[in-house]
Design a protein that fits this description.
Number of strands: 11
Shape: globular
Order of helices and strands: EEEEEEEEEEE
Oligomer: single chain
Helix content: under 10%
């Protein structure tokens, strides 16, 4: 089982935990969870007017061996208006626009989509239960 939690945080709500959303999927080949503004394809959605988040921003995909990966999908703009950071344990790294990173089997961590123009972020936690 792969679980996601998401909180959309603006400067006025910093430190608040209300409004957390959750989604999960079995760790079966081809299973996918998406984060973005498009409610028709994303299990976790952000406010419609948060344009620093693409219609489909992050995609978590389960591979043939039951491990998961995350991709920052390219949007309609050549340059993103956000940055994405991935934290696993004590290690934080930037996720490249259009890039994909494997996630640790049985691990957990967090991705932060940070608006480059305002103090807003989308915090997505993940947990892979094996």
């Amino acid at each position: 089982m792969f679980e996601l939690t998401m909180a959309a945080v603006s400067a006025a709500e910093a430190g608040a935990t209300a409004g957390m959303l959750m989604a999960d999927a079995p760790s079966e080949p081809g299973a996918a969870l998406r984060v973005g503004r498009d409610r028709s394809v994303c299990r976790l959605t952000t406010p419609d007017d948060w344009l620093f988040v693409s219609r489909v921003h992050l995609e978590f995909l389960c591979g043939p061996d039951g491990t998961w990966q995350v991709s920052w999908l390219r949007g309609s703009q050549p340059d993103p208006s956000s940055e994405v950071r991935l934290t696993i344990g004590e290690h934080t790294r930037s996720l490249a626009y259009g890039g994909t990173v494997p996630l640790p089997r049985g691990g957990n961590g967090e991705l932060v989509i940070q608006d480059r123009t305002a103090p807003r972020s989308v915090n997505v936690g993940f947990f892979h239960e094996v």
